[in-house]
Amino acid sequence: IIINNNNSEYVHNQGTRNPSSRRVYFLHFLPLKYLFSVVIPATNRVLKENKKKLTSMAELLQYMGIKMMMSNFPCSSIDDFFRESDTFQIFKVPDFSPYMKCYRYRDFNKFTQFADEQHRPRIEANDDEDNDYDDDEEEEDGGGPQEYQDILWDVRPMISAFNDHIHTILKPSWLVCIDESMVKWTNKQGPAFCFVDRKPTSEGNEYHTACCAETHIMFHIDMVEGKDKPQRNLLKSHILERMTESIKGSRRVVCLDSGFGSVKPVLNLLDRDLHATVVFYKRKYYPRSVPGDSISVHMEGQPIGNTESKVGVDEQGRKMRLFSIREDKYVSTIGATWGGGR
Questions:
Q1: Average pLDDT value over all residues in the chain
Q2: How far apart are the C-alpha atoms of 277 and 249, rounded to whole Å?
C-alpha cells in the first residue's frame, strides 16, 4: 500500500503533467532528492575536471532509462545501440542515437558518481568484542582488532538513500520475504565480488533483499561484502535486524529460506514483535537446536506427504513449531513462530 509520495512535488515541478503515467509511477520509487542534491553535483565535479559537458537531472534520468533498456539485450555491444540497425543483424536492438550520443553515454559510464568525497569514511577498527554470535556460528580467531576500510563507500550512500526513501512511501503487506539476490558482475577484482554456485547468475554482487510478498516490491537492500565487512555485521541475527528495522513492532510475518535457518536469530525476531516462517532442512545437516536425527528416525518409513509437528521452547520461553514433511528421498522441516499452534 503506497502511503506517501515525497517526490510528487519535485516531479511535477520538472514538467510532468500526468501523475498516473508509468514514468511518474516508476520515478515515485527513486530517491530523486538524493540524485538531485548529491549525484548530479558529484558527477558534474568529475565531468568538469575532465573537461566534459556538465549534466542535468533530465539527462541523468535519460541515461538511466537507456541503460535499463539496454540490459534486455545482453549480447550486444554499446555501439550497436547508437546507430541505425544493420539490415543483416540477427537480433534487432533499439537505436538510442536520437536521444543520446554514444560518446556521451560512455562519459556517463565513466564519470557518474553516486557519492561525494565527504562520504568517504575513516578507517575503523574491526573489533568484535561485543559480538552476539548465532547458535550456528562460531567466533573466528582474528588475532584482535583489525583495520577496516569501507570498500563500498562510493555506492553505500545511494543504497541508504533508496532504503530510506522506499520506507517512507511503501507500507508492505502482512507477509515479507527476505532472500539473497545476485547482480551479474564478471570483474573478479571488483569490490565485494561473490561467487554463489546455487544461483542462476553465480558471479557478481550479492544483496540481501526484503520484498513485500503481495506487491512484489523490494523495500530494502543490503549488500553482501563477505570478509571485507567486520565480522559482527555478517551474523544472521545482525542481518535480520538491519533488514527488518523498518517493520519492527508491526507483527508481520517474515518468510526465510534455509540460508537464514538458524534458531536463535529467528526467535530473536519475536523480541522485535515480528513472526517468521523458515526452512530449516538442509540436505546435509540441520541447524543446532533442531533435533534432526530424531526427526529423521521418526519419519523413516512413513508414506510420502505425511506431516508431523511438534512445539519447541527455548530457555526464555519463546516457542516455535516444527513441521516435518516426508518427501521422496528426504524429510523437509519448516519452523514457524506464528499461528494458533505456537
A1: 80
A2: 17
Q: Is the pLDDT of residue 3 over 60?
A: no
H helices of the chain, in order, are: 8-13, 22-27, 32-34, 40-49, 57-70, 102-111, 156-169, 236-243, 263-271, 292-299
| Block residue for cell numbers 554456485 | 197
Do residues 283 and 330 lie in contact, with contact meaning Cβ atoms separated by under 8 Å? yes
For the chain, first and last CA: distance in Å? 29
Pairing verdict, β 203-212 and 194-195: antiparallel
The model's pTM:
0.78
User: Residue 58 is which amino acid?
Assistant: A
Answer for the pair 115, 158: CB distance below 8 angstroms, yes or no: yes
**Total Cβ atoms within 10 A of residue 170:** 20
Residues 256-290 have pLDDT tens digits of: 988 888 888 899 999 999 999 998 865 566 777 78
